[in-house]
Amino acid sequence: MGLAAILLSCSKDEAPSTPPDTGPSDDGADAAAQAADKACTDEASAFCERLEKCNPFGLLTQFGARPQCNDRMKIHCIAGRGATGSTFATDKIAGCAKALPTVSCYDFVTKNLPAGCADSGILDDGKGCGSNYQCRSGDCRVDKGMCGLCGPTSVAIDGTCTTDGPCGAQARCVSGKCTRLVKTGGDCDTSIGLSCWLGAVACVGNKCTENAMKAGDACDELSCDYLTGLLCNATTKVCDKIVLAKAGETCVIGDKPCEASAFCKTDGTRTGKCVARAVDGAGCDPSVGAVCVFPYRCDSTSSKCVPPDPSQCD
């Protein structure tokens, strides 16, 4: 059971028949909290619906299934909403929840989201942060523990990068360079930073071409639909369904990912071993591979997986 469900559940046998007298209630604060909770519930559900529709393999590797996605993204939303520098207010979250169902898969996968859904705040590069929602760049770099630093605001196409974040919408970091992700029918040329997006398209004759390949079809390196969990087998040259590695098994970044309950621990190469993630409340130590389940963080004081709390990073 996710944390949100645990906090909201209540046993009738344990509930007092008459509420205790705790003094005057703040109806305004209660209403605001309920509105924020509903907005984050709706936004998480809308996000996970789009993820399941547009990138089902991503849903599987990141969360395992739709209910887990709903739970974890709601926790992520609630933490980011109240963070210093965040502009992710309740009305903005509610607007994002309404807008997400209309976003195309190309825009969703390439992070070209409605203004109300942008996970960026007002904190400049180098400022302390605990959530992407706080940073102007939308990129809070947390290596371990609860807090990190806001990353660079933007990197131009063909500029140097180490993660996708600084490359912005409709771009990603490919081989250390920010590369524009072109939609179906657009011009592509990887030599000048124009790659096709992952939505089952391939660059053929310098055009991003729709690709309807299924498991068992003949393929080349980039022609299988990775978003549905297919990869071109280097030996047989046919599209194969990717089998996720379990904890303790060998993993390969991109080619053989781990199940959602584990992550691929490598030593600087693409190959490593799947290590089980520490569950909520369990002991953790990122330095030895005990990483928490998203969006929980490893608290440096208790060395346990706790809900994200960006206020600790002010």
Descriptive report:
This protein has 314 residues and is an alpha+beta fold. The protein has a domain at 30-118. Helices cover 23% and strands 17% of the residues. The chain has helices at 3-8, 27-54, 56-62, 66-81, 90-99, 105-109; strands spanning 128-129, 140-141, 148-150, 171-174, 177-182, 194-196, 201-204, 207-210, 230-232, 239-241, 250-252, 262-266, 271-276, 297-298, 305-306. The chain has a three-stranded antiparallel β-sheet with strand order 1-3-2, with no helix packed on it. A hairpin with a 4-residue loop joins β12 (262-266) and β13 (271-276). Mean pLDDT is 83; it is low at 1-24.
Element layout with pairings:
Layout (H helix, E strand, L loop, with lengths): L2 H6 L18 H28 L1 H7 L3 H16 L8 H10 L5 H5 L18 E2 L10 E2 L6 E3 L20 E4 L2 E6 L11 E3 L4 E4 L2 E4 L19 E3 L6 E3 L8 E3 L9 E5 L4 E6 L20 E2 L6 E2 L8
Parallel strand pairs: 5-6
Antiparallel strand pairs: 1-3, 2-3, 4-5, 7-8, 9-10, 11-13, 12-13, 14-15
Short summary:
This protein is an alpha+beta fold and 314 residues long. Helices cover 23% and strands 17% of the residues.
Which consecutive residue ranges, at least 5 long each, have pLDDT under 50?
1-24
Number of strands: 15
Report the C-alpha radius of gyration, rounded: 21 Å
Strand order of the largest sheet: 1-3-2
Computed structural class: alpha+beta
Q: What's the helical proportion of residues?
A: 10-25%
What amount of the residues lies in strands?
A: 15-25%
Average predicted local confidence, pLDDT: 83
Helix-strand string: HHHHHHEEEEEEEEEEEEEEE
